[in-house]
Give the backbone structure.
Amino acid sequence: MELQDFDLLQEKALEVLREQQDTDAGLLLYNSGNSGGCRPKAIFSDEEGHWLIKFRHTYDPQDMGKQEFDYNEKARRCGIIVPDFKLINDKYFTTRRFDITTDGKRIHTATAGGLLSISLSNPVLDYINLLALTGYLTQNYKDVEQMYRRMVFNYIAENKDDHCKNFSFIVTKDKDNKWHWHLAPAYDLTHCTEGYNGEHATSVNYSAHPSIEDMIAVGMKNKMQEQKCREIYYEVEDIIKQ
């Protein structure tokens, strides 16, 4: 797709969202595939691979794409594993699809919500359960530690859109043709202060307003060492405050 195509999709997205041209809704639905979310999106591929590009909603600021780009840069500096991302035309945040290989093959992916049969409309997930699910599926301490790091980041950096469908797991085959679950890269990381009635979608140690001790308790209940939990917390906090 050319840059002017993205500009056209952004224009049409705003028109549809303003209910000015309902006939253009089909164009957006076709291009967004099943990417979901409340902001308009489109999927495309180029010589670098398969991508998902996001467009502004009517209530978003003009520099929404740049804000999301900067937010993901900070997340990566905090040690959060995110897919490759870029800013197209200085305004469109674009992220690589982690569920499609470079040659176009789909990778089996499941959300925490799907695996735990949790409804998006009734947020009951706690990070204790999310870390436990990660450990059970992946049998990998590093993935558990990564999920803990995401919990800390989401709370300190105010990403209250941490609902059950924003955490995913992928299945890949090793050299011996055995299948294994892995924690998928983090996605839909945005500065979201509204959340669900002003609260995070996922609680910490069953608290909506957790302390550092609550976060450490989540890690320790999932076989993490207290010192490691504190190290991750202060590391993430220091980077976000910079």
User: Anything to note?
Assistant: The helical segments are 3-17, 25-32, 64-77, 112-116, 127-138, 141-156, 212-220, 226-241. The chain has eight helices and seven strands. Confidence is low (pLDDT under 50) at residues 25-36.
